[in-house]
Design brief:
Helices cover 73% and strands 0% of the residues. The chain has 377 residues and is mainly α. Helix 8 (151-174) packs across helix 13 (287-314). The two termini are 40 Å apart.
């Protein structure tokens, strides 16, 4: 049993590093279906279920302190990549499709949680899942922490995220050959050539990892200092999440956005956070997962129907609604892949939409999550 806080963090960092290296270096096909974040979480949770990590106050304190500091640091770095100027150049059809995707996902969560009569903890977990499906796993952690979702409920949400997302990607890729027929049905014109120059400058030039590590540590200290000084929005976690988001947005308007390396440092923090949360989760009732997965598919069905109706009304092409959907539900890892199947010149559009989710996901997830908690009473 591990009772040393330092060895505890080392073990989690080792797990995160091992899977990150396997995903990026080994070229294993399994990572196309099961992302590294899920494997990291699953192994950490398995070790926790085997009572590898001691349940002492010292271990609990290091868990809380690490999570409280890594979370705002990660959010800040993630948001440095947002480029509002380029986002609003996307064009009418893509902007409408993106807004429609966000609203339909939010509506789907509210309807499904109401119909399934979930508990407050499950509703909070689906609020965290809404953060993921409007942004990414980083937003999921931020929203789940702010809503005080238990580690066990978070585990269910992560399973739903993985299973439903994987099948959704397969469906959207399957539909690519039918784009011409779909566009004829919606009377849309696929004219996206003007988007070729749109992209993110955050992956150009030398990587400045130490700069971002130092900057993120300072930001974590700063937002926690403000939160502990009396400034409070609902609770401490919500406060640091919103403050980190705000400062990240401000930073995106500066030269920091153009410096390479923030994405890699933020992803490293994300993987460690996933391992950290997994180390406190133990799933005792696997039968509940099936209900949550079914609920997830119901959300996707509502989302798909609204997107289809919106495509018909606003004359949107299949690429626009598909990439808007996957930029939300899939994120940076998968949206560019779908974009490339239509036209390799449009990969940057998928990246840009997905990066915007880092901003939308946190606020959207918090809003939806609080609505869900009110729905379940």
């Amino acid at each position: 049993m591990i009772s040393s806080p330092l060895f505890y963090l080392f073990t989690l960092a080792f797990i995160a590093t091992a899977f990150a290296l396997l995903e990026s270096k080994a070229n294993l096909k399994i990572f196309k279906f099961i992302p590294a974040v899920v494997m990291i979480y699953a192994l950490s949770m398995f070790l926790a279920s085997q009572n590898l990590f001691a349940h002492t106050q010292e271990m609990k304190d290091i868990y809380i302190n690490t999570k409280t500091n890594l979370l705002p640091a990660m959010l800040f770095l993630m948001l440095l990549q947002v480029d509002f100027k380029h986002f609003f150049k996307l064009g009418r059809s893509l902007l409408i499709a993106y807004i429609l995707a966000v609203l339909s996902i939010a509506f789907g969560f509210i309807i499904v949680v109401y119909l399934f009569h979930f508990s407050a903890d499950a509703a909070g977990a689906f609020g965290a899942l809404a953060g993921s499906w409007m942004g990414g796993t980083a937003n999921m952690i931020a929203v789940g922490s702010a809503l005080n979702v238990s580690e066990d409920a978070f585990a269910y949400a992560l399973v739903v995220d993985s299973v439903n997302y994987t099948l959704w990607v397969v469906l959207l890729l399957f539909l690519v050959p039918f784009a011409k027929h779909f566009n004829t049905w919606t009377k849309s014109e696929e004219n996206l050539a003007f988007l070729e120059s749109i992209g993110c400058a955050c992956t150009i030039g030398a990587k400045r990892y130490w700069l971002f590590i130092a900057l993120s540590i300072f930001m974590a200290f700063f937002v926690n200092f403000i939160a502990y000084s009396g400034f409070n929005i609902l609770n401490h976690t919500t406060t640091i999440v919103i403050l980190a988001t705000f400062f990240g947005i401000l930073g995106s308007f500066t030269k920091l956005r153009e410096i390479n390396g923030s994405g890699e440092v933020a992803t490293t923090m994300l993987y460690i956070l996933i391992a950290l949360i997994g180390s406190r989760a133990v799933i005792e009732n696997f039968s509940e997962i099936f209900i949550y997965v079914v609920a997830g598919f119901c959300i996707l069905l509502i989302h798909a129907l609204i997107m289809l109706m919106g495509a018909k009304v606003f004359k949107l092409d299949l690429f626009s609604i598909a990439i808007a959907s996957l930029a939300n539900i899939g994120g940076v890892a998968s949206a560019p892949i779908l974009a490339a199947t239509y036209n390799k010149a449009l990969v940057s559009v998928g990246v840009l939409m997905a990066i915007m989710g880092y901003l939308i996901g946190t606020f959207g997830g918090l809003l939806v999550g609080n609505i869900l908690l009110k729905v379940v009473g």
